[in-house]
Amino acid sequence: MTINGMNRLLTSIEKKTAAANVDNIRRTMAYQAFYERNPEICWAFLASMVSRNAGWNMTDLQLDMFRALLSVRIRKQLFSLYERANWLIFSDAYPQLLLYEAHKHGEIDMVAHLRHFQVSAYMEETWRQFLKDGDRQRLLYRLIVNEQHVIGSPVIVQPFYEEHVFKRWPYKLQDLFRLNAVFFPTMDGKLYGLCAHHFTSVDERIQMGKELSQLLFHEKLSPSFLQFAKKAPYTGSRDDYECFGRFRTVGSLPLRQCYPVISHEDKIRKDWYRYGGINQSWLSPPEKKAYRPTGYVYYWKRKMMRIFAALFKKKSKAIT
Questions:
Q1: What angle do CA 280, 281, 282 make, to 5 degrees?
Q2: Contact at 8 Å (CB) between 45 and 18?
Q3: pLDDT at residue 156 in the model
Q4: Any alpha helices (H) in the chain, and if so which ranges?
Q5: ∠ CA 208-307-191, rounded to 5°
Q6: What is the pLDDT of residue 162?
Q7: Radius of gyration (Cα) for the chain, nearest Å?
Q8: How far apart are the first and last CA of the chain?
Q9: Mean pLDDT score, 103-114
Q10: Disulfide engineering: 149 pairs with which of 10, 31, 126, 272, CB 3.0-4.6 Å?
Q11: What count of Cα atoms within 13 Å lies in the side-chain half-sphere of residue 160?
Q12: pLDDT classification of 319: cutoffs 50, 70, 90
């Protein structure tokens, strides 16, 4: 490829990334579409399903129970946390995916152009190895490790989020009772998933990512998850999956009815790998588990939360 042709390709990747990174819905669908074109890149499917859950958590913040319990300011800060992390991961990962696709079609040597998109040196070696041996699980785990470090400095240890989110009682309460869950639904109304815990720990986030990948690609369950992803439209409302089962969230709205498009500023990124290196335990597979539907426990907790929110609102009005 000529230099001009290469520049056009890199510019095209930049434009496609920016267009798909406008909001959570476009990111989710971009991941999903890429996976359907390139099923050997398992991480893309995991990213699309986790991104769906990020959107459901965003729209949850507009429910009556959250409005009763949390101030407008706190709900905006929580939305900002979800949105910022979602945006950062996509801005780093999607150019890698598009470079791989171009490489796969014989257009370029992708590894040589990762630095153009400020991708970590860790991923240069990762992709180089994958292109040689095609080890899908190693690529999957290393992409999980990378994404969780990408959001480290800009989000997790960023002073604003540390002060206004992670040190505040709403975060500590949901972490204590494990109220934040990632679900993989099926078309027959079942919900499989895991509860997020200790989100501020990179070790815990990586471990959860690996466990979620184990669940998502479980031999018996994965076809049902993929069927859901292909057939169920994604709007950001929990009705996306609740319409197939017995659980219901009254008042859950589509994402685009809840929030405007948010613009992000992107600073020059430090390469996390050069400053921290790798813990080999991050790359070891989790213990195998027997997975069962988990929706009952989660929705019982939400029912208790609605009752508490109603009492809290009633008491607040009485005091007023």
A1: 85
A2: no
A3: 63
A4: 3-20, 24-37, 42-60, 64-69, 72-104, 121-133, 136-150, 159-161, 169-177, 202-216, 222-231, 239-242, 255-258, 272-276, 295-319
A5: 35
A6: 67
A7: 20
A8: 71
A9: 94
A10: 272
A11: 11
A12: very low
